[in-house]
Every structure is written in C-alpha cells, then in structure tokens.
Write a structure and sequence with these properties.
Layout lengths: L5 H6 L2 H19 L3 H46 L1
Amino acid sequence: MRHCSVQVRGLLTRDELDRYNGLMEAGSFLEEQSRYDLAYVIQQEVDLLIQPAIEQLKDKSRARDREEQEYLASLKNEDTAE
C-alpha cells in the first residue's frame, strides 16, 4: 500500500483520517495474505479519499507562488522607482 504524504494527511478531516487509517490497515492485511487483487481495490479507494486534500495542497502551493511573484514584482518596482 502506498501512503500519502504527511502534508496531505494533515489536510484530511478527522473522519477522513480515520477512514484512511482503516483502509490502509485493511490493505496491508490483504497484502500480507497475498491478496493483491483486493489490495489494489483498497488502494484505489484511498486514492479517491485523498484526492480533494491533494487538490487543496496544490491550490495552497499556487497561491504561495502567486504571492511570491507579486512580492518580487513589488521589489522590482521599488528598484525602478529609485
């Protein structure tokens, strides 16, 4: 089973995190039993569960990049004003 990043887990609600942990435990058990066909289905459910948190993390990153560009542009404008 593939775990998601700590940043993504940090964006999950308590209920989503509980579901994530339960799915990961079930998937790990299935892998131990060599039931990779069923573990694959569990992994797909995990991927669906964490997708909104991944998108939220991407949005935060884009906003941070935008703010950085605005800051750098303001510094450039200050230099040209002098």
